[in-house]
Amino acid sequence: MHNYIEVIKINNVDIAIKITLVISLILMTSIIFYRFRKKRNTYIRKLDSLLKQVQKNELRSIIIPDGIGGLIEIERLLLLEQGLVIVETYPIAGHLFGADNIDQWTQIIDGRSFKFTNPLNRIHNTKHALQLLAPRLPIFCRVIFTENSNFPKGKPAEVSVLSSLEQDLKPILQHTQMTKLAEEAWDRIIRIARTDGQSIYRES
Fold first, then answer.
1. Which CATH number fits domain 57-199: 3.30.930, 3.30.1140, 3.40.1350, 1.10.287?
2. pLDDT digit string, tens, across residues 106-117
3. Shortest CA distance to 79 belongs to which of 192, 168, 182?
4. pTM above threshold 0.85
């Protein structure tokens, strides 16, 4: 009987330890997720603030034909006086290494190295698809990383970190204004594009 009681006590202690570990793990995961979400939200707020200074209009998460029988999603599309700007965001930090014609880019953070696909490949495919809808209009691309990232060996021309974005947009703003053509192309895109499976354009 005495041994039986001791076994019950040991089992209860084991269960208590396991419950404590599970709760601790949940709390740690929640804290990490909260911090990541807070950083992400700060990044998006700063990005929105910078882009609103130059854009006339914006579409988010739209789907257009890719020109070869499929569809392609555009994360953010901006209308400027000078044309259209495709924006893809990459909220990752650290030392980044990449170039236009390299398939795999590298992120080094906290002493560890990670590979990721060259983001310019996708944004260039998106640009080609968009040119079918706006063939006479300049289309610019920007892949934007966080302000906590840097390119020690040089940053590709169509890439920005958040802290360099304002400066990187200046050459685009110096292009010839094509207001009427841009607005016509924008209206055409709105009529064709979809979001969440629904048409963006609404007949009045």
1. 3.40.1350
2. 999 999 999 999
3. 182
4. no
